[in-house]
Amino acid sequence: GVLMWTFDPGAELRGRIATGADGSIYFITRDGVLHGLNSTGKETMRRDADGLSPAVLPDGTVVAMSSRSELAGIAPDGATLWHLEIGQSAGPLAATDRAIYASAGADLVSVSTSGSLNWRVSVGPVTTAATTPDGVVVGTSRGAVTALASDGAVVWTFTPDGGFSGSVAYADDVVYAGSAGGGVYALDLRTGNPIWRVNSAHAVTTGPAVAPSGTIFAGSDTIYGVSADGQLRWKDPTLKPGEAGLFALGYDGVFDAAAGDVGAVLMGDGSYVWTSRSFGKIATAASSASGMLYVGTSTGRIFAIR
């Protein structure tokens, strides 16, 4: 819980913070500016952008909407490397070293890392995505969870009780998804068949998020901690999940942007590492492979915490 640095971009955040392998971060503010910061908090990029959130490819290329309908690949210094019309979009949902995935209307679009269109498939308005070894899994609000292969073929669809809600996550050939009817599902990546379900009292609103250790965290009426074999390890009624979500950390832990402007780091056994009300209203968060936690507030201020 040590504060390393803060950065104030002078405008509110639009969406998620994207992290690079070198410790850099990128985010878009409501004044239409894409910001890039290095690992010490120094601004290294500032250029116009559209959409809600960027993504960072393994080679350091930043991907963001350069207009309402144009996706662009951007060098770390802000220079445009390529651009492609995909239709009106909020920007990339997920990316790997092979493909970038974005939702454009009712279509899911796959774009190569060099900026050419791979495919577009109508799956409904996607709200969340998680990459898999051979494709991507997406969820549509109050709808289905759909797995697609790298060539765009639909592998399977599964509709949770009450429809999909929250996020989708992937780890070790298992897809995790929240339910509007209450509960977290573990689905077989190959077939989409349920492996287990852990019920919650209300709809899942944040998560599931999977820590590297295998612990699954989800927010509903409270925060739930679930083991990889589907056993409820604990639930904590003291922290209500906020709108910003749950963010898995680089160990057996999660950051909870809780209601009441509380930020908390919990371990897989439900114990607290730290809690704080020092941030103000939390809008989003992200973690890097090096263990740094980045917390973004409604005012736009970024906190870097180790």
Report on this model:
The protein is built from no helices and 32 strands. The chain is mainly beta and 306 residues long. The strands form 8 sheets. It has a 4-stranded antiparallel beta sheet, with no helix packed on it. Strands 2-3-4-5 form a 4-stranded antiparallel beta sheet, with no helix packed on it. Strand 26 (241-248) and strand 27 (253-258) form a beta hairpin. The protein is globular and about 50 Å long. It starts with a strand and ends with a strand.
Radius of gyration: 18 Å
Task: Tell me the major beta sheet.
Answer: 4 strands, antiparallel
Spans of at least 5 consecutive residues whose pLDDT stays below 50 are none
Overall shape: it is: globular
How far the N terminus sits from the C terminus, by CA atoms, comes to 6 Å
Which class best fits the helix and strand makeup? Answer: mainly beta
**Mean residue pLDDT:** 95
